[in-house]
Structure formats: structure tokens, C-alpha cells
Amino acid sequence: MRPRAPRLACLIARPVLAMAIATGGGAAAQQATSAAGSAASGAYLVRAAGCIACHTAKGGATFAGGREMKTPFGTFYTPNITPDKKTGIGAWSDADFDRALRHGTAPDGGKYYPVFPYASYALMTAQDASAIKTYLFTLKPVERANRAHELRFPFSMRILMRGWRMLFFADTPLKPAGKSPEYDRGEYLVRALTHCGECHTPRNQFGAMRESLFLAGNAEGPDNELVPNITPDKKTGIGDWAPDEIAELLKSGESPLGTDVGGAMREAIRDGLKFLTEADRKAIATFLLAQKPIANKVSKTKS
Hints:
The protein is mainly α.
């Protein structure tokens, strides 16, 4: 079942529909209706995908990029994804956007670093990717030049990404498990749209997720934060949590222990996850609790 878009998306859709009615013409009206629906869906998907938090610098314009992301490989700066034609994505075609989002390839053929979670977005449907672009192109263009990454050698050599992709990038869409509609929706949200594994899964020395420890927590998360184990292990994960408690955390940020989440997860909830429908939050809970429990206490290694 498709999620209902938030009120913000409705405000985007109405002017487009009004324009179609004012200009008349069945074909034009149908196209405008389709575009409005796609933008409304895209607004919801952008929230789910966490685009706001990652592509907005502290004190900067929303979606205009510049967010600093510190990693063991150096510091990355997120790009401008407003429809500005000089410094953003305003000159990108539909095909350009799809190749970037789902295949990790820039319009000029360059390969993106996996700090951009295209390995997860590759599991997204082409329809959802198109809706995200449609929504982003309704935004106000912001002229803000992208800042170059500051990476340690040899990671500063982007050509290495070709080898990385051969080893670690599948570039295939997600095939539903078919266990239940709620499970399948939860899997799509966790693995693709909300890309939970990108933060909650430890990585190897090449920066690729260790699938054998999927969602088992990460001692070197965003900005070197500890990211908890969210497998259903009862001692080190969320095995004692009820589905409603997980859904509530995704909405309010409050855990069953009465504590509030912090760091990157607080941003993810504030700017994205709290806007999900209740059905989608429960689908995430269903999928998480159905995973293999992995005993893994996340902590910093003493040097």
C-alpha cells in the first residue's frame, strides 16, 4: 500500500492542479495531476530517505549541501541538491538523477564515494527515484558551490571507486521476500529508503558494510558516534522491545527505557522518520524483530 504524503506535499500539489484547470485541456490536466501526485509522493520519500539532515549544513539553506561528515577516511561534504543549474542538480535529466541516486554515477561518469548511500538506494524502485526528483525540482534553487572533500591518501583517488564497486556494489533492485505485505514493506524501508544498515552495520577496512553483521551496531558511525545494535538480540539489541515501542521511538525519539536518542538518530527522526505513517513505522518494527539476533555489544576499542 502506498503511504499517504504529509500536508506539505499537498500544498505542493494544489497549485499544479489549479494551473491545469485554469489552462484547460484533458491531456495537460492529466499530466499535471500525474506530476502533482509524483511530487507529493516524492516529498514523503525525501523525508524517509533522510535527505534533509544530510544535505543541509548547520545554519545553511535546506538541501543546499555543505554538511560536514567525518569518517575514518577523511571528511566529506555533502552536495547541493536544490534545482540550481549552476551549483545544484537543476541541469540534470531524469536519467542523470536515476544514475546518481540508484547507481552511484555522476552525470560526468565519475563514481560517487559510498558515504553517499547509493548501495542502499540501488534497492529503490525506479518509480520512487523519479518521484524524489520530481519533488526536489519543485524547490527553490539555491546557488551554493559544493565544497571539495578532504580525504586521506589513497582514498582521495576517486578512481579507486571503480575497484570498490566491483567488489562490494551489487547494483540490483530489492526482491521482496514475500513473507507478508507488512514485512516486505518494512524490508524495503529498512534496506532501501531509510537505509538503516548504512549507520547500524559495521564496515570493513574498505568502507563496505559487513553483511554478516547487518544492523548489529557500529562503533564508528557518523562523526565517529557509537551506533547501537538493532537486531532482536535480547542482551545487546532490541529483542525485548515491543513493535509499538519501536514505532514510538521512530516517531518521538523516546526509547522504552525513557531515554531520548541523540546524535544522527535524533536528526533522522526530527527531519524524516517522525513524518512516516504509523503503518510504515510498524512495518519497520516488524522487519527488525524478524531478523536474526546478533550478540554484539557496541563499544569503543581501547587503544
